């Protein structure tokens, strides 16, 4: 299982808005930091803005955080760029006559929900400020 690169790219975008505060932080500027197309950054910025994490001023204004870094968690960023659905999908086309296939969904639902909750708890405990503090020490 792999969480797509949209999540790490979104973290990069939000970090750039804060780390380069005082500079003109545009989608082109951020795209250069990520080494990606500015269109990808603009799409992510739209999503992050809709989630209330960034402010965007068109033209010369650029991107800034909508909240203090200490008030933005990785879970907020994760939820902004990922659908609010179950992280794990369980196949449901097993034959009902099979003694395993007929029970697989019931068997896996609870442990996979617990794993998702553990991930969410971990992401909730890490703020953008935590990452900025760590970045300074790298």
From TrEMBL:
PROSITE patterns given in the database record: HTH_RRF2_2, PROKAR_LIPOPROTEIN
Entry GO terms, CC: cytosol
Residue spans crossing the bilayer: none
GO molecular function annotation: DNA-binding transcription factor activity
Stored Pfam families: Rrf2
Xref: InterPro entries: Tscrpt_reg_Rrf2 (IPR000944), WH-like_DNA-bd_sf (IPR036388), WH_DNA-bd_sf (IPR036390)
Protein name: Rrf2 family transcriptional regulator
Taxonomic lineage from the root: Bacteria, Pseudomonadati, Campylobacterota, Epsilonproteobacteria, Campylobacterales
């Amino acid at each position: 299982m792999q969480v797509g690169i949209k999540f790490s790219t979104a973290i990069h975008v939000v970090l750039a808005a804060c780390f380069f505060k005082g500079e003109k932080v545009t989608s082109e500027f951020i795209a250069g930091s990520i080494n990606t197309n500015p269109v990808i950054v603009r799409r992510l910025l739209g999503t992050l803005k809709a989630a209330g994490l960034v402010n965007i001023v068109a033209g010369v204004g650029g991107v800034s955080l909508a909240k203090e870094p200490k008030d933005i968690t990785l879970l907020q960023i994760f939820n902004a760029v990922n659908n609010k659905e179950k992280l794990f999908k369980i196949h449901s086309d097993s034959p009902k006559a099979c003694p395993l296939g007929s029970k697989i969904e019931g068997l896996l639902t609870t442990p996979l929900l617990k794993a998702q909750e553990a991930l969410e708890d971990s992401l909730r405990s890490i703020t953008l400020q935590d990452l900025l503090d760590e970045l300074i020490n790298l």
